[in-house]
Amino acid sequence: MQLVQLQKAQNRFREHGLRVAAITYDSQAILAEFAKLHEIDYALMSDPQSEIIRNFGILDMDESPNNLPDFAKKGIALPGYFFVDRTGVVKEKFFGEAYYDRFTPNNVIAKLFPELLETSVPSVTAPHLSLALRQSDRDVVIGSRVTLAAELTLPKGTHVYAHGAPKYKPTELLIQSIGDTPVKPKLLKASRYPQAQELFLPAIKERVPVYKGRFQIEQDLIVLPPREVQQKLNSPDFKATDVIKVTVRGVVRYQACDAKTCYLPTEVPVSFDLNMHQNDFNRASESLQEKRH
Amino acid sequence: MRIDDFAWRAVPWRYGIGGALTTFILVATFGLTLAQNATSTQEVGPKVGEQLPAFQARDQFGHQQTLSSLTGPKGLVLLFVRSADW
């Protein structure tokens, strides 16, 4: 699925002077067939002896049945991305924490260029400030790692608190549920908060970390919909073109102060819509399939 | 698609999570300030700031590719996936 998503996202990388390419341990024949089927025109490279994968040090050592289907060979790569400059120096890397944890290509773009997160809800009613919601992806599969974000714009003279301010509630984006089930904590990955400014409060003679103006707070989520949605997605009747909409809900919390007043801590409900697609479990043609050794 | 493929994929979601959960709660409680501006990545392979090992591989069209044949003016995003055949 990442390979197909990468084809769709390719032009967004190109617009920023970046090319994309992918490597797997599959034979060149399998990749040629897959590329033709999914119209993939970036370089999809074969590392049939897993030499590159070993040389890079990203061989997946876990050979338990949880991890691998029984037809898999040894020598698969841990899934992830390297962003390198023209000379091959690693600038960023994006590897999940488990095999099912897959950064979407659009999430990688959003990490490299935060302004490219797409605005999904331009305006949420919120006291004391303007609130917009952004997300890296709408179209996802089970295991996609996406970025969800809240963009806060404060009027001049207003501030909200950052983490580390004693006595004040820090600004937070908390993701709580997907569909009708709570989000498991292990599915919430890196959150990203901007650098806070220091504000001197003469009344208490303390410096406290705050945010002013416009800023964005981000939360990574590994998408795992409720069990009944998973069952529908994996049912034989579900077509590759079908989607199931699921809504991710949470809250943005903050405590705002202006020159005169510090308001009570506020909690604003937020939601992000996702279209769940079926994971692609289709195998290569039988004549091309490689048997376990 | 084959249903038995789903069976082995679906199972790991349901268990083996306890340790990760405990770790997460500790990180969530004490790690918030540390997480600021950080991109969480599993520490495998060349680190940020290091040089990628040289590589050469054949693509789906049969062309030999290297870093210099692949890169754009500002660089390359190289994706490793497990398999296109699952």
Short description:
The complex is a heterodimer of chains A (293) and B (86). Chain A contains five helices and 19 strands.
Q: Over all CA atoms, what is the radius of gyration of chain A? A: 22 Å
Shape of chain A: elongated
| Major beta-sheet overview of chain A | 6 strands, mixed
Question: How many strand elements of chain B?
Answer: 3
Biggest sheet overview of chain B: 2 strands, antiparallel
Q: What portion of the residues of chain A fall into strands of 2 or more residues?
A: 35-45%
Q: Number of helical runs of chain A?
A: 5
Number of helices of chain B: 3
Series of H and E elements of chain A: HEHEHEEEHEEEEEEEEEEEHEEE
Biggest β-sheet: strands ordered side by side in the sheet of chain B: 1-2
Describe this structure in words.
The complex is a heterodimer of chains A (293) and B (86). With 293 residues, chain A is of the alpha+beta class. In chain A, 15% of the residues lie in helices and 38% in strands. Chain A contains five helices and 19 strands. In chain A, the strands form five sheets. In chain A, strands 5, 6, 7, 9, 13 and 16 form a six-stranded mixed sheet that branches. In chain A, a hairpin with a 5-residue loop joins strand 6 (118-124) and strand 7 (130-135). The longest helix of chain A has 13 residues, at 2-14. Chain A is elongated, with a radius of gyration of 22 Å. The two termini of chain A are 26 Å apart. Chain B is of the alpha+beta class and 86 residues long. Chain B is built from three helices and three strands. Chain B has helices spanning 3-10, 18-30, 67-70; strands at 56-58, 64-66, 75-80. Chain B has a two-stranded antiparallel ribbon. In chain B, a hairpin with a 5-residue loop joins strand 1 (56-58) and strand 2. Chain B is globular and about 30 Å long. Chain B starts with a helix and ends in a 6-residue tail after the last strand. Classes of the chains: A alpha+beta (293), B alpha+beta (86). Chains A and B meet through helix 1, strand 1, helix 2, strand 2 and helix 3 of A and helix 1, helix 2 and strand 3 of B. Strand 1 of chain A pairs parallel with strand 3 of chain B, so a sheet runs across the interface.
